[in-house]
Design a protein that fits this description.
Helix content of chain A: 25-40%
Number of helices of chain A: 8
Order of helices and strands of chain A: HHHEEHEEHHHH
Strand content of chain A: under 5%
Strand content of chain B: 5-15%
Largest interface: A-B, 57 and 69 residues
Number of strands of chain B: 12
Distance between the termini of chain A: 63 Å
CATH topology of the largest domain in chain B: Alpha-Beta Plaits
Number of helices of chain B: 11
Oligomer: heterodimer
Structural class of chain B: alpha+beta
Order of helices and strands of chain B: HHHHHEEHEEHEEHEEEHHEHEE
Largest sheet of chain B: 4 strands, mixed
Radius of gyration of chain B: 23 Å
């Protein structure tokens, strides 16, 4: 009986000084097992084959991740199909005919701060432009956005803003800013939920 | 008591060591079902004999009563019989896993005429799945739930959903004050949205209470259920502090043309009446490197998924650079599901 008492006392002490969930904490596991990069034995390439990718950034450094190519998805690209003369020479004729790009309305900041030429390079319509008039390819439009939205940009680089496409497995393929936000009207809209929750559906349609 | 128990352990282990199929014994006390499983070889061969007998009997009966009886029905009966006596998936060898998966695929083909593809893919090496949810981004659109129901073949009749989206008034986070049944355009002014589902705890209380070990944590951290081993006692549902588990009160029904035919044994294969189910991080997708359906469907990018053991993954960046929190952290359940704000 004494032995049992001693053993149970020891067990009790052990249990007090070392609670189960602290001993093998998840964070400890991440710090030890997750310290070095892992080599994956599987590949998820087949889930992104349909997407034309471009590496992020223009540097010769290691590519951080990939983004979908943009220019081939812009309806009226290349712009020089129409823009063969400088924009100043394409001034409206004053008639009542439908203007090009009539469907675009700018709902981004206010008109005193931003107009078309804030982002579009009026000297070369094939390109966007930065504040310092550097030309930026439509594929790298994030370089335009990040001039103002720097917090969102750094979150996007890390992966807290935006979203990865199809796969979690590296190489990372992430949506570009304009894949979610319409640059002419970047806010997401208010709408009805795509579905209601279980209780609400049953309430509205009792069986 | 202590000594008697220990002695029993010592007695039990050698018998398992003799049996090469007795996988899973780590010299702890053996449960009743393990003892049964460890003897399953003899039992199974005996059953095979019985099956043959049954086949002979039933075919005799069939042919005598009906002329429409055919080979398919006989095959189905035999498959059902073998399925009925199979073991716990956790203890199956790779061959046994393959065999049950093939039986299930064949049974579906015989019953419904279509082809489904059930995977028995195991965990990927050096992977521990983790999830982060951005409560500043979620807008309550519920696209995730649509995608989840579609992907995971949830019961359409009872409107089963694994994910719940809670609407909170800004300035507090009391779940009793949250509205889950919102019925208006979203996001509502002055509100934020927070989604819950199975958190795949690293220390899952639901696993500990299962009396038949029909639910367990896989190596990659996904908490899974063997739907064919579950007895439907719902202890796990009571033990889960996060409302992560769902029960099939009636036979689940998915219209034939809506069934997702890419399935996993531990994931979205068709369930039956009286068993538990829950989110599996879309095991049939995530083990192939794909994102879960909810992550892919989210139009706001509020859902982030990845490998916690990969220091270059986006989920690790979020954990390292954002102020993250988990629900009911004081319970020590260690959910692998974090929340954060922009």
């Amino acid at each position: 009986m004494d032995k049992i008492k001693i053993i149970s006392l020891l067990l009790l002490l052990g249990a007090c000084s070392n609670p189960v969930h602290h001993k093998d904490s998840l964070i400890t596991k991440l710090e030890t097992d997750g310290a070095t990069a892992v080599g994956y034995e599987i590949s998820a390439e087949q889930y992104t084959t349909g997407i034309k990718k471009v590496p992020f950034g223009n540097t010769t450094n290691d590519t951080l991740f990939f983004i979908p190519e943009r220019t081939s998805r812009i309806e009226s690209f290349p712009c020089n199909k129409c823009h063969i003369v400088p924009l100043t020479k394409m001034a409206p004729t004053g008639g009542n005919e439908k203007k090009a790009h009539w469907q675009i309305s700018l709902e981004h900041a206010d008109r005193e701060i931003m107009d078309c030429a804030t982002c579009h390079n009026s000297d070369n319509m094939e390109y966007l432009q930065a504040q310092n008039h550097r030309s930026i390819s439509f594929n790298n439009s994030y370089d335009v956005c990040r001039q103002c939205h720097s917090t969102q940009y750094s979150d996007w680089l890390g992966g807290a803003h935006g979203k990865n496409i199809n796969v979690w497995l590296p190489p990372r393929l992430a949506k570009n800013c304009v894949d979610c936000h319409n640059p002419h009207s970047p806010g997401l809209e208010k709408r009805w939920p795509a579905r209601l929750n279980t209780v609400k559906i049953q309430e509205l349609d009792p069986r | 008591m202590f000594f008697r128990r220990k002695k029993k352990n010592q007695d039990a282990c050698p018998s398992v060591a003799d049996n090469p199929k007795g996988a899973g014994c780590s010299c702890r006390q053996q449960d009743g079902y393990e003892q049964v499983i460890n003897k399953s070889l003899d039992r199974r061969s005996a059953l095979k004999g019985l099956t043959a007998g049954l086949l002979a009997g039933s075919s005799l009966l069939n042919t005598s009563c009906s002329i429409t009886s055919n080979e398919d029905e006989k095959e189905l009966a035999a498959l059902k019989w073998e399925e009925y006596f199979k073991g716990n998936y956790k203890l199956m060898t790779d061959e046994e896993k393959r065999a049950t998966v093939e039986r299930l695929e064949r049974m579906y083909a015989l019953r419904n005429g279509g082809k489904i593809n059930i995977s028995d893919k195991g965990p990927v090496k050096d992977v521990l799945y983790g999830y982060a949810f951005n409560i500043s981004k979620c807008r309550g659109y519920m696209d995730c739930i649509n995608a989840c129901v579609k992907e995971n073949n949830q019961d359409r009749d009872s409107q089963m959903q694994y994910i719940r989206i809670h609407e909170f008034k800004k300035g507090q986070m009391n779940f009793e004050m949250a509205d889950d049944n919102f019925y208006h355009e979203v996001p509502a002014e002055g509100h934020f949205y927070l989604g819950t589902q199975c958190f795949h705890c690293d220390n899952p209380p639901c696993v500990n209470v299962c009396p038949v070990e029909a639910t367990w944590k896989e190596k990659d951290g996904i908490v899974v259920i063997d739907y064919d081993w579950c007895i439907g006692c719902r202890y796990c549902q009571a033990a889960c502090p996060y409302d992560g588990r769902r029960f099939n009160w009636s036979a689940p029904h998915v219209p034939e043309n809506e069934i997702n035919k890419d399935q996993h044994y531990l994931g979205n294969r068709l369930r039956k009446k009286g068993v538990m189910e829950k989110c599996t991080f879309c095991i049939q997708r995530s083990r192939n490197g794909q994102n879960p359906a909810c992550v892919e469907a989210c139009p706001t990018g509020a859902r982030i998924f990845g490998n916690l053991l990969d220091p270059n993954s986006t989920i690790r960046w979020v954990l390292a650079n954002k102020k993250v929190f988990r629900l009911k952290e004081d319970l020590g359940t260690e959910p692998k599901f974090w929340y954060f704000m922009d």
